[in-house]
Design goal:
Shape: elongated
Distance between the termini: 21 Å
Helix content: 55-70%
Number of helices: 4
Structural class: mainly alpha
Order of helices and strands: HHHH
Strand content: under 5%
């Protein structure tokens, strides 16, 4: 299909819904598994040396940044699933043109066509 073809919405649903739902589950599991990495670092100088605390703080900051990216991706997946439910999946949210299966294959959460994206 190219961007000028009308999409087969049931086929798009059958193809992309399982992918989106699987990625959503993976993100939720990763978030749950990394929750302890994002907890505040104890700054007790008696139990941990200065460099160890710095490493722990850096690890916590990286885990927090990764969680922010996970939440953004999760929001895009939820929005794509909503567009599947409403029959708007694959259509540009700005101009209404079909985005094309090539864009959806690259990222099923894309919400804009090439023209509107740039």
């Amino acid at each position: 299909m190219t961007t000028t073809d009308e999409p087969d919405l049931p086929a798009l649903d059958a193809k992309y819904r399982p992918l989106l739902e699987a990625e959503l589950r993976e993100l939720d599991q990763a978030s749950e598994h990394s929750s302890s990495d994002r907890k505040p670092v104890t700054l007790d100088q008696q139990s941990v040396g200065r460099l160890s605390r710095m490493d722990a703080l850096q690890g916590q900051a990286m885990a927090a940044a990764l969680e922010v990216r996970r939440r953004g991706r999760r929001a895009r997946i939820v929005a794509a699933l909503h567009r599947l439910e409403t029959g708007e999946f694959g259509y540009c949210i700005d101009c209404g043109a079909f985005t094309g299966t090539d864009r959806l294959d690259a990222d099923p959460t894309c919400a804009r066509c090439r023209d509107c994206k740039s």
